């Protein structure tokens, strides 16, 4: 028998954090890398950031900060630290709001023992891909037990398995056999009970589901199960398959994990004993979770798991904090009307709007993310909400441009090394300056889609920095030696759609655009581009016939690379860009988690044309700033 483990410390600010070492097999190391974007450097950085966040969060009083516990949430959110922190808050809040369901998870409790020996859930083992396989025989739940008693058993099961790192990484494949289920097993669950339980399965507990196969659901349970699944997140619902007969379910058992009951050789009694040993091994660890504490008044005012909404849209994360730069605080006050009271009110209003918007299924609601939209709309919360919805629509309507933006793919490094786009740092007004040189781009290798994907990676990483949200961006387009084919690549529709997205959907403040050495053959395309922009943005465009004229008429010389007569080394600037994209890689990839139901979007309801080109008509000009 494995030695029994003791509970972990819940000191949120320990003097020394535990040192983590990855000890699992190569199968899980590779799975963690491919599916979760996990490696030693990413893991160490994410753990450090999450621990800092917990230490600074005034609403979390006591919390485990050992690596194994935090990795539950980081792996669940593919190492996006903001989303992992949101998941942790949601988990802690659910446990505190419903202690009779999710606390005092003691396997020695007589009721827990009875449920276990009835065998409603059995741990069959690990399949060939490294995923846990679990069998639920739903009819083995006792209709006389209360929903909270059944929930406590399942919570005890989830907490125990989440202590196993193979489960954190590999996730689970669940098979559900509804055979012999009676009406009283289903009918004891109220709608509120179903919402709370699905909140645990689908949102609060960091569970990674592979596939969920079910069979033989009786008619008496159909309406209850349909209601239950209506509260699941879309990703979970996509993984569920339902079959009429148990015979159809049997083919989803791997031979070595197929119970004798279904024609295989696995002894369910032996499998049950393995699960009992896990309960014994992690008994004190699971009970120790009850020592974590949060400000329940604060969190309960922001979450209502029994209310009408039960999706990831209701995440509340960081509170507003003014930026540390005095220059940018002044810009925020003078240009954006930003102050503590105004920002906090607008964040609250925007979160409430997201929670009530039937079109938005999942969305980040941490302050950093929402402030992007509030700042670009000068804290008009309705304007910010409109821009956010446009942003979500754009990301979904143009997946080839905006989804699966992985900054670590090899072609991104090639584009960085080409010096196509270089960040030059901040000017005297605190704005970030970028130099774009199309003559450096290999247009035979990189088509329009890849160019837009690269620009979007830059925009998303730029927008994650609050100083950039406040001060905005300055673009220098040096068109010296640009080939005609660089213009010919872009269709008029691509230009229109991309400009619409950048100026009306993406929260970016374009303060100045300097165009240098635009050739005559590019003038027509340039005019078409500007016709797609707002009058305010057009007024911020300045053209120069030569680099010398540009240098003379601006105060940006010191930021330019040495080949322009400036002071900066291009190699240093390229390295800074690579580091920035690496830093925000997981956060950018995690944006794909956000989902919108286009059928319910107010932006799309009145569109007669649902094609991508129809996007043009839906984006009327906003007051870009």
UniProtKB/TrEMBL annotation:
Task: State the InterPro entries in the record.
Answer: CRAL-TRIO_dom (IPR001251), CRAL-TRIO_dom_sf (IPR036865), CRAL/TRIO_N_dom (IPR011074), CRAL/TRIO_N_dom_sf (IPR036273)
- Coiled-coil ranges from the UniProt annotation: 329-356, 567-594
Q: Is Acetylation set as a keyword in this record? A: no
The molecular function terms in GO held by this entry are:
phosphatidylinositol bisphosphate binding
Q: Does the keyword Nucleotide-binding apply?
A: no
Q: Which GO terms describe its cellular component?
A: membrane
- Report the leader peptide range: none
Instruction: Identify this protein by name.
Output: CRAL-TRIO domain-containing protein
Question: Which keywords label this protein?
Answer: Coiled coil
What are the CRAL-TRIO domain coordinates in residue numbering? Answer: 120-270, 424-572
Q: Which organism is it from?
A: Anopheles culicifacies
């Amino acid at each position: 028998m494995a030695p029994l483990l003791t509970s972990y410390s819940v000191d949120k600010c320990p003097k020394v954090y535990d040192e983590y070492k990855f000890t699992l097999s190569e199968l899980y190391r590779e799975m963690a890398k491919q599916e979760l974007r996990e490696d030693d450097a990413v893991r160490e950085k994410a753990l450090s950031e999450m621990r800092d966040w917990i230490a600074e969060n005034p609403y979390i009083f006591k919390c485990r900060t050992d690596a194994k516990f935090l990795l539950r949430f980081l792996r669940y959110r593919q190492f996006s630290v903001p989303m992992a922190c949101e998941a942790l808050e949601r988990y802690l809040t659910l446990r505190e709001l419903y202690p009779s369901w999710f606390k005092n998870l003691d396997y020695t409790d007589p009721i827990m023992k009875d449920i276990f020996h009835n065998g409603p859930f059995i741990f069959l083992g690990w399949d060939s891909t490294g995923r846990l396989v679990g069998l639920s025989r739903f009819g083995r739940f006792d209709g006389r037990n209360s929903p909270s008693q059944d929930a406590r058993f399942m919570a005890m099961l989830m907490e125990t398995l989440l202590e196993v790192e193979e489960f954190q990484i590999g996730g689970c494949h669940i098979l559900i056999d509804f055979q012999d289920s009676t009406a009283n097993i289903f009918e004891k669950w109220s709608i509120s009970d179903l919402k709370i339980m699905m909140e645990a399965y689908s949102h609060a507990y960091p569970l990674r589901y592979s596939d969920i196969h079910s069979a033989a659901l009786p008619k008496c349970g159909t309406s209850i199960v349909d209601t239950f699944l209506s509260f699941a997140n879309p990703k979970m619902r996509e993984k569920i398959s339902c079959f009429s007969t148990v015979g159809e379910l049997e083919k989803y058992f791997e031979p070595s994990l197929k119970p004798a009951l279904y024609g295989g050789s696995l002894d369910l009694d032996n499998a049950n004993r393995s699960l009992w040993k896990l309960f014994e091994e992690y008994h004190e660890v699971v009970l120790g979770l009850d020592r974590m504490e949060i400000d329940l008044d604060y969190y309960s005012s922001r979450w209502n798991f029994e209310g009408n909404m039960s999706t990831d849209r209701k995440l509340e994360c960081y509170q507003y904090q003014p930026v540390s730069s005095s220059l940018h605080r002044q810009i925020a006050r003078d240009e954006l009307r930003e102050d503590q009271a105004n920002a906090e009110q607008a964040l609250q209003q925007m979160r409430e709007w997201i929670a009530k918007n039937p079109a938005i299924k999942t969305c980040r609601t941490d302050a950093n993310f929402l402030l992007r939209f509030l700042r670009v709309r000068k804290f008009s919360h309705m304007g910010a909400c409109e821009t956010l919805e446009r942003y979500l629509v754009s990301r979904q309507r143009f997946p080839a441009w905006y989804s699966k933006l992985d900054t670590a793919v090899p072609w991104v490094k090639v584009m960085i090394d080409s010096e196509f786009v270089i960040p030059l740092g901040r000017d005297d007004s605190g704005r970030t300056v970028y130099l774009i040189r199309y003559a450096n781009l290999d247009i035979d290798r990189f088509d329009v889609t890849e160019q837009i994907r690269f620009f979007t990676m830059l925009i998303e990483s730029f927008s994650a920095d609050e100083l950039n949200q406040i001060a905005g961006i300055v673009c220098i387009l040096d068109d010296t030696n640009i080939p005609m084919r660089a213009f010919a690549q872009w269709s008029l529709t691509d230009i229109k759609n991309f400009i619409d997205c950048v100026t009306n959907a993406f929260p970016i403040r374009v303060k100045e655009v300097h165009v240098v050495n635009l050739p005559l053959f590019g003038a027509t395309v340039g005019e078409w581009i500007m016709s797609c922009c707002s009058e305010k943005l057009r007024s911020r465009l300045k053209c120069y016939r030569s680099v010398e004229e540009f240098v003379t008429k601006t105060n940006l010389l010191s930021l330019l690379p040495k080949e322009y007569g400036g002071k900066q080394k291009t190699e240093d600037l390229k390295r800074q860009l690579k580091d920035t994209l690496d830093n925000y890689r997981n956060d950018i990839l995690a944006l794909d988690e956000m989902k919108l139901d286009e059928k319910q979007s107010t932006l799309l309801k009145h569109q007669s044309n649902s094609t991508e080109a129809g996007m043009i008509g839906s984006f009327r000009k906003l007051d870009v700033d």
